[in-house]
Amino acid sequence: MIHGAHVLLRPVEERDHVLIHAWQNDPEVWWLMDYEGPFSMQDIVESERRARAEGHPYVIEVDGTPIGRIGLNAFRRRDRICSLNVLIGERSAWEQGYGTDAVSVLLDEAFDRYDLHRVELWSTADNERAIHVYEKCGFVVDGRLPERSWKGGAWVDRIVMSVTREGFATSPTGDDLRRRGH
Questions:
Q1: Domains in the chain with CATH codes
Q2: pTM to 2 decimals?
Q3: Which of 85, 89, 95, 144, by CA, is between 20 and 30 Å from 102?
């Protein structure tokens, strides 16, 4: 388990599949995460099985209540790089700082425990809340992929972002973790 200022990250368990299924089928989450179609429960079971085999998936909890999912995957050991994915599925938890807390403590884990050099992710360019969180955690835009996703009758760009160990350490959230003795 990984403790943040307000969140707890714990490994995904089978009992979480129902929540993850509901979150990933929420129309607004679906839109923001750029999913292509609805998910069956079997899709979730298989996805979580792959996530455990290939990385480190966690449920984000606040005061014992699951609010989302976060994980590290696509490890490239030689290059000391992996990918990060996150979703806050409970709408009542949006814009409360929980996503920032979860991303920052998982980045701290990635750089400290796994001795990574860089963590990568991608987002649709219209997901401004997520991009703001990533930037607070030190992520910078590495590139823009024009007209990469067809959403709502229009093309939307994707952006690729990453953060290095040093970029995180000097970010507002990395600095905050250091001051708290994390």
A1: 2-179 (3.40.630.30)
A2: 0.90
A3: 144
